[in-house]
Amino acid sequence: MLNLKKYKNFDWILLASAIAIFILGLLFLFSSTYPNNTDFVFRQIMWFLVGVLALLFIANVNYRKIVGIGHIFYFLTVVLLLSVFIFGSRRLGAQRWLVIGGFNIQPSEFGKLFVILSLVQYLASQKKYRNLKNIVVPLGMIAVPFILILRQPDLGTALMFVPVLIILLYVWGLPLRNLFFMVLCGALFSPFGWFLLKDYQKDRLLVFMDPGRDPLGAGYTVIQSRIAIGSGGFFGKGWLSGTQNQLNFLAERHTDFIFSVAGEEWGFLGGIILLGLYYILIKRAISIAEKTPDPCGKLLAVGLATMIGIQVVVNLSMTMGFMPVVGLPLPLVSYGGSSLLVTLMAVGLLESIAVHR
After folding, report:
1. Beta bridge partners of residue 99, listed in sequence order
2. Concatenated DSSP letters for 272-327?
3. Cα separation of 27 and 101, whole Å?
4. In a domain, 6, yes or no
5. Residue 242's CB: how many other CB atoms inside 10 A?
6. Which end of the chain has less neighbouring CB within 10 Å, N or C?
């Protein structure tokens, strides 16, 4: 356990906000699986307890030592992602999970965190931007896991690497003209990505542009999600009282679309409370980055804040129809042991930066 005298800089507000989000998430999860599959709640609690142990352990370790073996984490990421194609289990047309010791592990979730560690290790070792190599190497580092995850297929997780890299390069000190050129090149070549997408991914993009295109197929989940959130009004219909939820109109409501349950049963007020907690969590992460004189700690804190923040923005946007459905979970809320464990590990790293800066 933590020595409170030694670790006087431990950020209790950061930890409290993460726990509060998880508790709210349990209420949403119970409602989304009630009355048939409430065992999901107990599994989520078990993963949370494992995650808390990992959080406390990581917080006690100097983050510099963890970043120092970033290349090992990167190698492990590639090995796990390759293993998925050989030993992975397939669900709903996607092959993303490994069964290890009776537990389903999603390597792409761990890949998000591990790649950040390896990027921070490389960038922190380069004092400043010198030549094209400083950009090419990080691009190459994200290209391998990006392609492997895209092949699973998991477009949402693969795309996560892009904003994380851009933000890290910006904080690291890459000149804005170079950063702008990279973004412009990416935007110009992005249309060619259409030919790399699976048919269902193309359908999701087309439905995003025209929700009424396939109301009983690709557009069904988003339409029902918007109905659920809109019908919640200001105060919501009440816990366990959401009709779209309880009558099984909402698909994937315990995972990617769990905010639909929150919006219907807890209303606008509940959504604002949840967003407020996320704001506190991310604000504390940014505050840790600002107070950290060490470039390595600053980069790591910003990278972790970006990882969590992007997932929140994308998940909420897709459930409300503001972005295409890309399958990103809502951190600390959506059901899934890998996602929950990785987020708590990220919080542990943030605590380590606060304690050891």
Report:
1. 104
2. HHHHHHHHHHHHHHHHHHHH--SHHHHHHHHHHHHHHHHHHHHHHHHHTTSS----
3. 28
4. no
5. 26
6. N
- Segments forming the whole domain that contains residue 204: 37-356
With beta carbons less than 8 A apart as the criterion, state whether 77 and 114 touch.
yes
User: Is position 7 within any domain?
Assistant: no
CB atoms within 10 A of CB 180: 10
What is the amino acid identity at position 116?
A: I
| Amino acid (1-letter code) at residue 169 | L
- Burial (Cβ within 10 Å: 0-12, 13-18, ≥19) of residue 184: exposed
Segment 214-270, tens digit of pLDDT: 666 667 888 888 899 998 899 999 888 888 877 777 878 888 899 999 999 999 999
pTM over 0.85: yes
Q: What is the pLDDT of residues 193-218, one digit of tens each?
A: 777 777 777 777 777 777 666 666 66
* Residue 313 forms part of a structural domain: yes
Contacts (Cβ under 8 Å, ≥6 apart) of 11: 284, 288, 350, 351, 354
